[in-house]
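FORM 7B: Structural annotation worksheet

SECTION A. Query
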Amino acid sequence: MPTILLLAAVLAAEGVSYVVVGSACLYLRGERGPVRDIDAVPAPDRANLARLHAVLTGLALGGWCPPLRLLATADLVQVHTSYGKLDCLLHRGRRDWDSLVAGAEAFDVCGVAVLTAAARDARALRSKFKDVPGE
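SECTION B. Predicted structure
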């Protein structure tokens, strides 16, 4: 299991509500390939974003964590942690949260349930936002 997946487990264990998309999602669903970061779509409610901010404040390398107001308004925020990079797809959370959760399923990562988007949803996001030739 790629070490970066521990980041997903830590977020879930700390009570952050989010859905994993991207390569980590596909990996957890059985498609083997490189997992370089965690792409997460957090639940857009203020209490959840506050939890996410608190957790990221403790995990961020170099002490940089986006301000809470940025989590509520930005499209994308990247945070580098000792586990690896986290991309918070915030606009997707505000716009697509209900549909992503509807098709999501929990996968065990080191004893923690990590909510993972449907493979079709992860692929749709990748094809729309990422140029991934050869992957």
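SECTION C. Observations
The longest strand covers residues 37-42. The chain has a mean pLDDT of 92.

SECTION D. Sign-off
Analyst initials: ____
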